[in-house]
Write a structure and sequence with these properties.
By secondary structure, this protein is of the alpha+beta class. It has three domains: 356 residues, no CATH class; 48 residues, no CATH class; 61 residues, Nucleic acid-binding proteins (OB fold (Dihydrolipoamide Acetyltransferase, E2P), Beta Barrel). Helices cover 35% and strands 24% of the residues. It has 13 helices and 17 strands. Strands 1, 2, 3, 4, 7 and 8 form a six-stranded mixed sheet that branches. The chain has a five-stranded mixed β-barrel with strand order 13-14-15-17-16. The chain has a two-stranded antiparallel sheet with strand order 5-6. Strand 5 and strand 6 form a beta hairpin. Helix 1 runs antiparallel to helix 13. The radius of gyration is 23 Å and the shape is globular.
């Protein structure tokens, strides 16, 4: 769900009057950044042989025994419009008592990537697909992740189905996990489905052509809304991160667009959180990997931030109180909410993967307000999810666990380290991409907002396109949240620096 979308550039006030964009081999820079942060962009010897063997003797995709045949259901996927590494598909059913049965089909990657195989050993090293904006460095070879093991439209695929019943008040019951053959009937995109669900735009062509699919998506949206409201009642945090992607025209980056949250992105997020909870509870009697965000160590600083905005938070960490504060601030200052969210996320600390043995106290996930949480729904792009899938399949088959506790602990540690490294690579590349886009706009004036003031300087974010930069020269009396007009004076593409002066 992270692949960049392609859209049309906005040639408004920020269009270059005389394009002199600085050129840089961003793909080479991305590869170099990957290496510097400990990744291995090239697949090792043995991977090609494994892929050739799979092509010669592909696993049988057929129902039978413990594998159900669910191809007749109206499955669909919603992802970015350029995504090919589809990890999950969804379908829902209205029940007589008013509740909704939700099924999430997760790609069965394990069947094609056995533990200890060449592909698996590389995935164990990398642990994640890294999305740099100009190139995706896939954890698994593209032949698998965007082909054989991807839940692409109108193809019969093996999957692990996570099923649950969602009541009108968002409670989850009737949990089941089982294997099945599935077929994605409609590959859809976030922007189109989101705009349609929110009444902002027409139905995408595939949706417009099928009254049954329209009813299906509305039912899914209803179930997702119930799940979301129930989590928020328990204190799940309403956070908004600022995500951008490059806008391409003839293979050239011409602009930067903001990735907007909408009803479709929230629908998928809600279903994935619910599915991950079901899997986590299924694995309670065996050792497994959990994804946790512990109670914030720097809660005192979050309390101080709230106080600066006239709000009082409890002395002890309280996710419900924090969420009420966040909702209030989003309404009061929507333009600056992404910056407040980012500050809160940093103060909460990053999520980590941990080994959890049966009987261990559950640390839970503070930001999601859930105690039972693992990563299981993206085995094409995250190694922790592939490991979890193997644990699930072993449990379903009544087989011994495929991993020892020590092995799981090592996987958890490596996944945490590489996830942090991937964030650094993606951040470095987003800054370079921004500098490339802005390099042809020297001298232009932009509306901006102050995002940071510290010993290193004053930082601002242009509002269109949304890029961060430093405000040059002395800026006494300026504080976070102030709005101003700024003039772009300099870019450094290699370092990803952008410098503004007050206009």
């Amino acid at each position: 769900m992270n692949t960049p979308s392609h859209s049309h550039p906005d040639h408004s006030q920020t269009s270059p009057s005389h394009p002199t964009q600085v050129h840089m081999d961003l793909q080479a820079a991305a590869r170099q950044s990957m290496v510097e942060h400990g990744f291995e962009p090239e697949y090792p010897a043995g991977v090609a042989e494994q892929l050739a063997a799979l092509r010669a003797h592909p696993p049988v995709v057929a129902a039978g025994g413990a594998v159900q045949d669910l191809r007749a259901l109206l499955w669909s996927s919603i992802d970015n419009d350029t995504s090919r590494d589809l990890d999950q598909i969804e379908v829902a059913e209205q029940l007589a008592d008013g509740s909704i049965r939700v099924l999430v089909g997760v790609a069965d990657v394990d069947t094609y990537v056995p533990k200890g195989s060449a592909v698996d050993l590389h995935a164990y090293t990398e642990t994640t697909t890294v999305y740099t904006g100009v190139k995706n460095f896939s954890m698994l070879p593209d032949e698998l992740s965007t082909g054989t093991t991807s839940l692409l439209e109108v193809a019969d695929k093996l999957s692990v189905v996570v099923e649950c019943v969602v009541s009108a008040d968002g409670q989850v019951t009737g949990e089941k996990v089982y294997r099945a053959v599935v077929r994605n009937k409609a590959q859809l995109a976030y922007d189109g489905v989101g705009a349609w669900l929110e009444g902002r735009g027409p139905a995408p062509a595939k949706v417009a052509a099928s009254a049954e699919l329209q009813a299906q998506l509305h039912l899914q949206n209803k179930a997702a809304a119930a799940l979301r409201e129930a989590r928020q009642r328990h204190g799940a945090l309403n956070l908004e991160t600022l995500e951008t992607h490059p806008v391409m025209l003839n293979d050239t980056i011409v602009d930067i667009a903001r990735q907007q949250k909408n009803a479709a992105t929230e629908l998928i997020e809600d279903f994935m959180i619910a599915a991950n909870g079901v899997v986590a509870r299924m694995l309670e009697k065996v050792s497994s990997i959990r994804r946790v965000v512990r109670s914030p160590e720097r809660w005192d600083r979050i309390v101080e931030l709230a106080k600066q905005m006239g709000e009082i938070l409890p002395v002890e960490a309280d996710s419900l109180a924090l969420n009420n504060f966040l909702i209030k601030r989003q309404k009061a200052d929507p333009d600056h909410f992404a910056d407040l969210s980012l500050a809160v996320i940093k103060l909460m600390g990053p999520g980590v993967y941990v080994l959890e043995r049966p009987g261990d106290p559950e640390p839970g996930h503070f930001g999601l307000a859930v105690q039972d949480y693992t990563h299981s729904t993206a085995p094409n792009r995250r190694y922790a999810d592939l490991v979890t899938q193997r644990l699930v399949k072993a449990l379903l088959a009544g087989q011994p666990a495929p991993y020892t506790d020590d092995e799981l602990a090592a996987v958890a540690t490596n996944c945490t380290l590489k996830e942090d490294a991937a964030r650094k690579v993606e951040r470095e590349m987003s800054k370079r991409i921004a500098a490339v886009v802005m390099s042809s706009r020297i001298g232009q004036v932009f509306d901006a907002i102050v995002t940071g003031v510290n010993v290193h300087g004053t930082f601002v974010r242009a509002l269109k396109p949304q890029v961060e930069g430093m405000l040059m020269a002395s800026q006494h009396g300026i504080d976070v949240g102030d709005r101003m007009k700024v003039r772009l004076v300099k870019t450094d593409v290699e370092k990803g620096f952008i410098d503004f002066m007050r206009a």
